[in-house]
Structure to design on (546 residues):
């Protein structure tokens, strides 16, 4: 039976590069996929593209491709990535430039576009937004991006045209891992069970080190060997959809049913209905069996027909958040920190009454993560005060960090290490759109 | 005892929804987790954080529960005023629950 090996090159936009190079060199791979888009990454990329039409792709694209392209060419590994972000075409041109520089003559580099639906966003004025259940036209602020989560279609077309490198914008995370299976094995678009298994592969690989012991280690309870040189995962999958997860021998980390169990549950809601553009996957009956060191066989994923809609993320700007921090230490630090919060609260009410949409007052080290009013904590040896506020203008938002910093000379004794910042916030809202409104477009260039 | 002693957990985020898994180290503890760690109990545990409902799903073969917590991320990952905008630390807080 035909098998292929697919590696995970990155689990988020800023992920480490070295484990992916190790995979290309030693993983005996056919494909490596770099997953680099979070919910609002494209909205931020769109802003960059507006300022400079040659930008808007992943900020580490050049850094990664300088090393990955020549190495992948040498080892005959194809690269698929959503690092194109808001500008896959510009990202592809950058890759062509890098490939030329390294003399990778004949390399085929493809870009997949079509996810950007900003030009037709007015069509969805009446469409309900998930987050607030109101029509899209009532969304406050300015819409800066709108991108549909496309499926495998564009990537598969690029591979059919011989692409060695495929750069996409927004596609579903599993799609960049599943496309090679569809291309290599000839799976049909309604082979639901196979697509369910392929989605399981993608889901386990899409967060990089999170399935090889990253984001897992707990000294004494969940010990991970060599986490400092954590390896990234790879999957060997057969044309019937059976597969195992492993990693390169000698790399750090571990692959066990427990590491896989944590990752299967990551960012899913109903395990029987994991909705993707290509299939509604069912992970409910998945089983993990250890089959040798750092090798886990995965069975039991199935699938059901896909939906007629695509999820679409809309980036919009309607506010600024200002936040400031300052520390207090030594005996009595908790009482001084509490006093500091009261002082800032009073001063903000004085200088900008009713002008903040929302505020948060934290004692970092005590209550910043869990907001539980009943949670008790002992006096720490040091505590960090943090105040954050949301406002419609930067001038108002700035008042928050300024008042925190001013605690130096106007607040309790011993305040130290103040920092302040104000950010314009790009928020994300989600809608569903008809999948027929989205048309993947593929361009293939030969170096 | 704390859940931390018999189970592990990971948090994921989508918009303003957080999902927190709870996975038994030992399969024989799974039935007890199902009985003790109800959605109601989890909602109470996360009061102050979770403003919406809590729905529980089961993955029996891997002895895992998946709690989907609505309106749990201070308005959403991209808008939250929290230090932990993604709510990634919520898994550790679930494991602090006494059973």
């Amino acid at each position: 039976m035909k098998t292929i090996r697919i590696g995970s090159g990155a689990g988020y936009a800023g992920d480490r590069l070295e484990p992916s190079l190790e995979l290309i060199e030693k993983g005996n791979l056919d494909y490596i996929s770099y997953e680099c888009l979070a919910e609002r990454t494209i909205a931020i990329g769109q802003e960059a593209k507006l300022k400079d039409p040659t930008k808007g792709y992943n900020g580490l694209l050049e850094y990664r491709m300088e090393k990955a392209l020549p190495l992948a060419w040498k080892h005959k590994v194809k690269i698929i990535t959503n690092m194109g972000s808001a500008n896959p075409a510009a990202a592809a041109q950058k890759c062509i430039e890098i490939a030329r520089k390294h003399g990778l003559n004949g390399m085929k580099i493809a870009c997949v576009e079509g996810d950007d639906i900003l030009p037709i966003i007015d069509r969805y004025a009446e469409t309900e937004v998930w987050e607030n259940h109101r029509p899209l036209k009532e969304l406050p602020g300015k819409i800066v991006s709108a991108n549909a989560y496309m499926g495998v279609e564009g990537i598969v077309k690029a591979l059919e045209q011989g692409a060695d490198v495929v750069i996409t914008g927004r596609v579903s995370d599993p799609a960049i891992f599943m496309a090679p299976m569809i291309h290599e094995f000839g799976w049909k678009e309604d082979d639901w069970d196979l697509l369910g298994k392929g989605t399981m592969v993608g889901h386990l690989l899409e967060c990089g080190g999170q399935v090889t012991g990253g984001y897992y280690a707990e000294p004494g309870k969940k010990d991970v060997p060599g986490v400092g040189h954590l390896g990234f995962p790879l999957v060997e999958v057969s044309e019937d959809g059976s597969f195992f997860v492993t990693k390169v021998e000698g790399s750090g980390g571990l692959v066990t049913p427990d590491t896989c169990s944590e990752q299967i549950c990551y960012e899913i809601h109903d395990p029987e209905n994991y909705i993707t553009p290509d299939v509604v996957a069912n992970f409910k009956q998945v089983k993990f069996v250890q089959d040798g060191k750092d090798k886990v066989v995965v069975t039991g994923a199935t699938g059901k027909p896909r939906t007629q809609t695509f999820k679409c993320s809309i980036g919009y700007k309607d506010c600024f958040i200002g936040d400031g921090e300052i520390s207090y230490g030594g005996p009595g630090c908790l009482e001084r920190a509490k006093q500091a919060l009261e002082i800032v609260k009073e001063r903000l009410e004085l200088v900008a009454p009713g002008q903040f949409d929302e505020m948060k007052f934290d004692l970092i080290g005590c209550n910043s993560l869990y907001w539980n009013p009943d949670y008790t904590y002992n006096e720490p040896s040091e505590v960090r005060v943090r105040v954050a506020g949301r406002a419609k203008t930067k001038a108002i938002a700035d008042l928050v960090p300024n008042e925190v910093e001013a605690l130096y000379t106007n607040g309790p004794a011993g305040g130290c290490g103040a920092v302040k910042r104000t950010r314009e916030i790009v928020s994300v809202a989600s809608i569903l759109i008809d999948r027929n409104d989205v048309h993947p477009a593929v361009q293939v260039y030969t170096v | 005892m704390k859940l931390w002693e018999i189970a592990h957990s990971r948090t994921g985020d989508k918009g303003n929804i957080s999902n927190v898994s709870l996975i038994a180290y030992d399969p024989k503890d799974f039935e007890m987790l199902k009985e003790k760690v109800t959605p109601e109990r989890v909602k109470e545990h996360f009061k102050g954080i979770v403003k919406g409902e809590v729905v529980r799903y089961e993955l029996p073969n891997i002895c895992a529960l998946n709690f989907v917590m609505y309106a749990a991320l201070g308005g959403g990952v991209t808008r939250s005023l929290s230090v932990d905008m993604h709510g990634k630390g919520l898994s550790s807080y679930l494991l602090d629950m006494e059973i």
About this structure: Strands of chain B lie at 7-8, 11-14, 17-24, 54-59, 64-69.
